[in-house]
Design a protein that fits this description.
By secondary structure, this protein is of the alpha/beta class. The chain has 28 helices and 18 strands. The strands form 3 sheets. It has a 7-stranded parallel beta sheet with strand order 3-4-2-5-10-1-11, with helices on both faces.
């Protein structure tokens, strides 16, 4: 657990629920704020959050678009944190929401709550990963050893970092105009074990020397420890959670005496899966070794020590690593070929990329012979001897950190090869521009049990919220038996994240969807496998883009199909004088979105990442075209394993997993359209399964009530 010293004396407990209800009332303090509009849904959510915090209970709340959910959880969280000397940890999925909270919402609340007759004063900050921050002590040491550590161009880059360090106030990567070379930055940034209050904090021996200043991470750490509200992302949350021993979490989750609010909670399960498991790549291992010694450049930590035996062992291990991952790839190619020749119901390699597979599930231990963990251990033993004899404490610390990382990598490789973690799925992934970086991966098939233990069994509150969490399946006969006290569409989500014992609440949107939105469903679309599907798809897309003269998102579930349709529609866009931005064709996603917003009549073709987390208010997005219902293809090993688990216990994998996941993503896609109370537009569904299949009505039932026209 991250150490935390209480900064506020415990005050007398106030009636938090009544105070929050009053603040969100038509005549409360918020009513005096600019642009405030009383919304009963927002007040209802805020009161529910207050009740959960007061009662040390957990809450899952779906708050429709326009509710203003960030203020609905921030205000009760701030008052509760300050009154009870606790820390509110707010975790989001996107950087956009983090920036909104830290740059807009929290400063506004600082003014509003500070103007109360009894002012509520609080502090807040954003938590970034420590490797975002410069460590002044490591920078000083790197300059002293530059000739041993870096090539000439890298030394020039190091000097640029030194010049920047004398001007920056933040000391983090976001303060660079042009980010530094990752290899050089890795030798000067804050790193666990190398950057501690004792080594480079305000009272350290390093800082007592003339001209030396505290490490930027240690400065940020002070703000983090003092803050009443801490904002971070889901990835960083689960990276920190995974490093905390369960028995130290009494009274909190990341910090002593904290409570946690997850916004964009629909992403929690996916992010948790990635960080609870393991992933070790050829690139990671090579980087960790070349930090010690790079045979090509003859640079590294060992260069200044002139220890031939250790250098030789690192060189041998680099060769063994290359051989090991080459053998892994060969074994995977043979396995993929066998699966291709004898495909089971879902036993096929993942599609995508220029080569045959991108993810390949490994079902048996000992994919290849282990020729790498013993050489890693030999290197670690040699480094341990150097640490004992080193006269330079800083170099010894660097070597200790290298050894710690090598121990982690060795353990992960051993776990992968032995497949000793029960309930996990194992796979090899191929990534990079030419798919040459191989990684060995394992993740729990079901993260709910882990989250149940680490989050929902804690002695503090956990609040999870998003605009889309619910899936109502009773109308189509797929609903599982429910707790009679919680007859809600939130059961599926709660089960996925281990939050079954939470209070569950759905508050609708204040928007007038019956006036603002209309849905069109194409009744005569061919099946995607039929001849003529592509032609019909293009005809309908052209029809509806003409209707709104652009201003459209066209959402696909298949990248290859999207590119084909975009190419064939190019003459159409030229004829209408419309720009069409296509994801994955060279323009960065964020830049493409900005261009789309600026050119009001343009069209954007997107796949997975444009279905959610994208905010385009106003006329620029007046038309969302969903080309196909977003059922996940079970070609990722984790999805495949989840389906197998459900079927192995006699369950219905379609009703229990595939359908609710597709409905949630469908709701996310539809949710791109109406972002403000003045927005208007249409949603087009070019998949007639919503009309012809038993489950189709569940998709239409899942979105806000509005006019539906079948064409």
């Amino acid at each position: 657990m991250i150490s935390f010293i209480d900064q506020h004396p415990a005050g007398s407990s106030s009636d938090l629920i009544a105070r929050v209800e009053e603040i969100f009332s038509p005549t409360g303090i918020l009513s005096k704020a600019k642009n405030f509009e009383y919304r009963p849904q927002q007040q209802q959510m805020a009161v529910a959050v207050a009740k959960a915090l007061e009662g040390k209970e957990h809450l899952v709340v779906e708050a429709g678009t326009g509710v203003g959910k960030s203020l609905a959880y921030l205000i009760p969280a701030i008052i509760f944190a300050v009154t009870h000397s606790k820390k509110a940890v707010v975790s989001t999925h996107t950087i956009n929401l983090q920036e909104q909270l830290v740059e807009k919402d929290l400063p506004m609340l600082e003014r509003v709550l500070g103007a109360l007759p009894e002012p509520i004063k609080f502090s807040f900050t954003m938590l970034k990963g420590r490797q975002n921050y410069l460590c002044t002590r490591r920078l000083h040491k790197a300059m002293q050893q530059a000739d041993s550590l870096f090539t000439t161009p890298e030394i020039s880059e190091l000097r640029r970092i030194v010049e920047w360090s004398q001007q920056t106030k933040d000391g983090s990567l976001s303060d660079f105009d042009t980010e530094p070379d990752p290899k050089v930055w890795a030798m000067v940034c804050s790193e666990r074990g190398l950057c501690t209050p004792k080594l480079c904090g305000h009272q350290s021996d390093f800082v007592k020397l003339p001209g030396h200043t505290p490490c930027f991470f240690q400065r940020a750490r002070s703000r983090i420890l003092e803050a009443d509200v801490l904002v971070l992302n889901h990835t960083l949350f689960f990276m920190n959670l995974g490093s905390i021993a369960e028995d130290t979490a009494e009274g909190g989750i990341l910090f002593k005496n904290d409570f946690v609010i997850f916004d964009e909670a629909h992403q929690v399960e996916n992010v948790a899966s990635k960080h609870i498991g393991l992933s070790v790549s050829s690139g990671q291992l090579r980087y960790s070794l070349q930090r010690l010694w790079n045979p090509r450049t003859e640079k590294g930590l060992l260069a200044s020590l002139r220890k031939g035996d250790a250098v030789r062992l690192v060189g041998d291990l680099l060769h063994a690593t290359d051989t090991f991952f080459a053998e892994v790839e060969t074994a995977c190619e043979e396995l993929a070929q066998r699966i291709g020749q004898n495909p089971g119901p879902r036993a096929r390699p993942a599609s995508g990329g220029n080569r045959a597979w991108t993810e390949l599930r490994i079902r048996n231990a000992d994919l290849v012979k282990d020729e790498v963990t013993l050489p890693i251990q030999r290197v670690r033993e040699a480094i341990s001897e150097l640490i004992k004899t080193s006269e330079d404490k800083d170099t010894a610390q660097e070597l200790m950190e290298c050894n710690r990382r090598l121990a982690e990598l060795r353990s992960e490789i051993a776990v992968f090869l032995s497949q000793c973690e029960e309930g996990h799925v194992y796979w090899v992934e191929r990534a990079g521009k030419v798919q040459r970086n191989l990684s060995l991966n394992a993740a729990p098939v079901d993260v709910a049990n882990y989250l149940r233990q680490r989050l929902f069994n804690s002695d503090t509150s956990v609040v999870m919220t998003s605009a889309t969490l619910a899936t109502e399946l009773k109308s189509v006969g797929y609903s599982k038996s429910e707790n009679p006290k919680r007859k809600t569409g939130l059961n599926y989500f709660a089960h996925q994240v281990g939050a079954e014992k939470s209070t569950m609440l759905q508050v609708g949107s204040p928007f007038e969807y019956e006036r603002q939105m209309k849905v069109f469903v194409a009744a005569k679309m061919p099946d995607p496998r039929e001849v003529g599907y592509d032609k019909a798809l293009i005809q309908w897309i052209e029809h509806f883009i003409t209707m709104t003269h652009g201003k459209a998102f066209v959402l696909f579930t298949n990248f290859k199909l999207m590119l084909q349709v975009a190419e064939r529609m190019e003459p159409f866009f030229n004829r209408l004088g419309l720009k069409c931005f296509v994801q994955g064709t060279g323009t960065p996603r964020s830049l493409m979105l900005e261009k789309f917003k600026e050119d009001v009549d343009s069209v954007l073709f997107g796949t997975d990442s444009f279905w959610q987390g994208v905010d385009v208010p106003g006329e620029a997005l007046s038309n969302v075209i969903i080309t196909r219902l977003p059922f996940a293809v079970p070609d990722h090993p984790l999805i495949e394993a989840k389906i197998e688990n459900i079927e192995a216990r006699g369950g219905n994998s379609f009703g229990e997993f595939s359908l609710p996941e597709a409905i949630l993503k469908f709701r996310q896609g539809v949710g791109r359209l109406i972002r403000t109370k003045s927005d208007n537009g249409i949603v087009v569904v070019l998949d007639n399964r919503v009309l012809t299949k038993k489950y189709g009505q569940a998709f239409l039932d899942s979105i806000p009530k509005c006019p539906v026209e079948i064409i």
